[in-house]
Amino acid sequence: MTEPRAPRESSPMRVLLAVDGSPSASIAVDLVAGLDWPAGTTIRVAEAIESGPALFGGPWPTVALVQSDTLEESVRDQARRNVEDARSRLGRPGITLEDRVLSGRPSVAIVDDAQAMRADLIVLGSRGHGRLEEMLLGSTSSEVVDHAHTPVLVARHRRIERVVFAWDGSSYGRAAARLLTGWPIFTRSTVRVVTVADVEVPWWTGVPEASALAIAPDILEAAETSRRLHDDLVHEMTVELVAAGLDATEERRDGEPAREILAAAVATGADLIVLGTHGRTGLARLAKGSVAGKVLHHASCSVLIVREAPIPIPA
């Protein structure tokens, strides 16, 4: 961890912290509690619960048919306790705390409440209590990232001291860079700016392996050009972040982007990966084909996704 720099002047933020009483949500609470939020920031702690058959995950058991109101109120009471516990861990001077127990499908309720409060950021754990808990990314977290109108931080670590910023020169990557330079929560972070030159042999060349590239000088030249362009790209962004007061270093990698971003995070012991996505297609549905989707689903550290355009959640 680097020596703290002078705090940045920043407008108050509006943060929605989604909880559900799970260990993953507890990590998200600890992360939010430890960050340097601007004075006047509002943090709303919220839990969303379903009602009716959806509350019980399928066809209602006999006892649910008879005591549905009692059972739903019990779930709501537990949600209130979860919210109150999280709120009790967040209090500090200069921060306004709010709490909500929301009704409805959790991903929809969280996204709608974030939009209603004009949130700058949603923070939530990577997994909850749902039936997909065994997956690397839970269904609620995945859907919120997919459809939110605001950046989403999926928490897997309790700090953000070491950050990998995946930079590709795009407009949505630029939006992510603005958060790094504009949000004081990154003041104490070291940032590794990583760009990836995709120099793997295209399938359509018919070249069976990289060692055979001697017979394809055009491909070799294209790869070298890509490396030079990415060297310039990562250097320019690193200089920009340093000028903004961040402790930033640079690295160009070669290969498949998602794989190399994940490898860079492991190599640097990153607490957080920051990256942008165009947002034209859902990350959850395109996990195998989207760089952001692959990183989000397979990272062992927290991930902050910044997107340009949200996708409406189907009714």
What does this structure look like?
- A ten-stranded mixed sheet has the order 3-2-1-4-5-10-9-6-7-8, sandwiched between helices.
- The chain folds into two domains: 11-157, HUPs (Rossmann fold, 3-Layer(aba) Sandwich); 159-315, Rossmann fold (3-Layer(aba) Sandwich), CATH 3.40.50.620.
- Strand 9, helix 8 (291-298) and strand 10 form a beta-alpha-beta unit.
- It has helices spanning 23-34, 62-88, 106-116, 139-147, 171-182, 217-243, 257-268, 291-298, and strands at residues 14-18, 42-49, 96-103, 121-125, 152-155, 162-166, 190-197, 247-254, 272-277, 302-307.
- It is elongated.
- The protein has 315 residues and is α/β, with parallel strands linked by helices.
Q: Architecture of the largest domain, CATH level 2?
A: 3-Layer(aba) Sandwich
> What is the total tally of β strands?
10
Query: What does the overall shape look like?
Result: elongated
> What would the average pLDDT be, to the nearest integer?
83
Counting DSSP H or I runs of 4 or more residues, the number of helices is 8
Radius of gyration: 21 Å
Outline:
With 315 residues, the protein is an alpha/beta fold. Helix content is 37%, strand content 20%.
